[in-house]
């Protein structure tokens, strides 16, 4: 099968969210993030530390788009594995407000990831066995 391109809107009219908040993708697919209103990031993290940059992970850096122009600021991630990968917006407290994204989350993991992100202290791992 030909590689697919999955488009994800970052911010914009929907608010502090990625739309959609996760995609199911095959190895070789691309995920293209289209940054809208204000200034956001796509920063890789882990399931248990959703608001903390994963050493060696992917990060877009800040992509300001105050004019809210679709296609002006984009960032592409190549899907290299079917394993879940986790991302967040590193702007201020956006992650703690639930601005998180995943590629290939297993059933139930997206909810766990988002709840952990919105927890009181995002730099502390969630207790094992929760979610």
Automatic annotation (TrEMBL):
Q: Which domain of life is it from?
A: Eukaryota
Enumerate the Gene3D superfamilies for this protein: Cupredoxins - blue copper proteins (2.60.40.420)
Q: Tell me the InterPro entries matching this sequence.
A: Cupredoxin, Ser-rich/MCO-related
User: Where in this chain does the entry annotate a coiled-coil region?
Assistant: none
SUPFAM superfamilies for the chain: Cupredoxins
Put simply, this protein is called: Cupredoxin
């Amino acid at each position: 099968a030909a590689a697919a391109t999955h488009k994800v809107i970052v911010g914009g009219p929907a608010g502090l969210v990625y739309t959609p908040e996760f995609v199911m993708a095959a190895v070789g697919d691309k995920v293209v993030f289209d940054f809208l209103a204000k200034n956001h990031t796509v920063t890789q993290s882990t399931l248990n530390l959703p608001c903390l940059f994963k050493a060696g992970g992917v990060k877009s850096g800040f992509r300001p788009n105050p004019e809210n122009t679709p296609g002006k600021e984009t960032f592409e991630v190549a899907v290299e594995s079917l394993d879940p990968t986790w991302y967040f917006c590193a702007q201020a407290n956006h992650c703690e407000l639930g601005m998180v994204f995943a590629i290939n989350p297993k059933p139930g993991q997206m909810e766990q990831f988002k709840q952990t992100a919105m927890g009181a202290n995002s730099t502390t791992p969630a207790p094992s066995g929760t979610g």
